[in-house]
Amino acid sequence: MLSSRSPMLVLQSAVNGILGYIGLFFVTRFIGATAYGYLAFGMGFAGTLFFMNDLGFSQAHIRNISSGASFREANETFLAIKLLLGGIFVIVVISALLIWTDILHKGFQNPVEFDVILALIPYYFFQNMLGFSNAFYTARLHSARMSFPGLVEATFRNSTFIIIGALAHFHVISVGEALGGLILSIIYSVSYTLYFTVSYLIGRPWNIGRPRLTLLRSYMAFALPLAVSSSLSTVNGNIDKVIVQFFWHADATGAFYASQRIVTIITTMSSSLYIFFLPLFVRMLGSREDFDTSVQEYERIVSLFALPIVVAFIVMHLYITNLFTAAYDSYSEMLMFLSANAYIAAVTMPYSSALTAENKTWVVGRISIYAVIVNIALNLLLVPPSIFGFRAISLGATGASVSLLSATLFSSFLYRYRVWRDKGIGYPKGITVQAVPVAAQAAFLYICSRVLHPYDILILAPVLAASVIIYLGFAVLLRQITIGQIFMFIRMVNPKRIVSGMREER
């Protein structure tokens, strides 16, 4: 049911995930957990102000091109929008820093955090600009051209992390906590500058001309409800790091962000399958039966791919966190809640995409508002050490992950209820069958954790691999997937296909 192009994006996600784990290991072990905490706070602060990143215009652009609009007119208008939004972001961040320090005379836990935020401005600016090329590749179903720049960026960034970490470990260079945080932020900005440059170059010729005012008005009419959703989702994904930093300082913030980075592989691999939902749904609007059944089929497939990783992270959370640094052992429970959150968010994607494809963007916007309110309210209740001297409900830094999961569960329920009510398709019974392979995998991992205590990667890696094989074996027995489909997917996840695919995607 999914596009045959999705495996290329899954390959990119898998490679990026492996490189990301290696890079994270060298950063947290040899550059320092506190330095990583400074980076995490900088990303949380700047990321919270990144609310004007997209405002729903990317989905408007994808929907427009998928409907058969002129590529040239759409591209020139959308590029102008992204440049404007990027410029506004730069002004807002610099203004916020100047107001905070020069007018309100406030400071940060460490003065380097001011410099870290400034150094991250190019990272967020070019992340915004990537929306231009990636939205076009998504609408055209150009998975190879979308995959290659991400591989270049991940290779450059993590190789640099590894080199600097190794030099620090062997005392060739001295990297303190403050300098380390600043260096990490600069590397992120350089890598995303490279990311956008490569993405833009392989998409030429763009034939950019003057933006069209009529098309801009059309985009604004579609994107306005999603603007609220997009902005609040961005705030929702970053403000928790700011709150954790305020109450628990850099190490806790770094632990929270590290757990988020670990579960990124769930999000990115699920997104690799999800990325083409919107353009495909737009093409299906003429066939109600295909449209309605595809929502639950997409959910089943995304769940099938995500669950073995989620189960491994939940059951083995202590051992996986310990691989990066023992300093995060006391925060390892975060990984459990963030893994569950990533899974719920992933299986909800088809429902939000279905509503967007049908132009029900106001529904998406309202649900996003509710989710942000729930998340922020719970953060303010669960993260602080006490509320008016009352400590019973404080979960510390772990409260941020519980809050995020609660908000995601709430929004997922609302999305599902709306789609089920509108279409009358009922609860997806096919996905419940996956509880059997999940139970088998979880039982195996639990026994191994009690018997082997696999802190060593040489023990943990084979255990995790065996658990995935057990999961897939039960999935095959229950006809959730066939052995032929598994081998077909493995053949499609071939690095050579990216190169050949780029030649085909003209």
Summarize the SSE layout with pairings:
Blueprint: H1 6-31, H2 33-48, H3 57-66, H4 71-103, H5 112-119, H6 121-139, H7 143-169, H8 177-201, H9 213-236, H10 239-262, H11 264-274, H12 277-284, H13 288-315, H14 317-324, H15 333-357, H16 361-382, H17 398-423, H18 429-432, H19 435-452, H20 457-477, H21 483-492, H22 495-504
Mean pLDDT: 84
Radius of gyration: 22 Å
How helix-rich are the residues, as a percent range? over 70%
Distance between the termini: 24 Å
Q: Hey, roughly how much beta strand do the residues contain? A: under 5%
Number of helices: 22
Structural write-up:
The chain is mainly α and 506 residues long. It is built from 22 helices and no strands. Helix 1 (6-31) runs parallel beside helix 7, helix 2 packs across helix 8 and helix 7 packs across helix 22. The longest helix has 33 residues, at 71-103. The protein has helices at 6-31, 33-48, 57-66, 71-103, 112-119, 121-139, 143-169, 177-201, 213-236, 239-262, 264-274, 277-284, 288-315, 317-324, 333-357, 361-382, 398-423, 429-432, 435-452, 457-477, 483-492, 495-504.
Which terms summarize this structure?
mainly alpha, 506 residues, 22 helices, single chain, globular
Offer a concise description of the structure.
With 506 residues, this protein is mainly α.
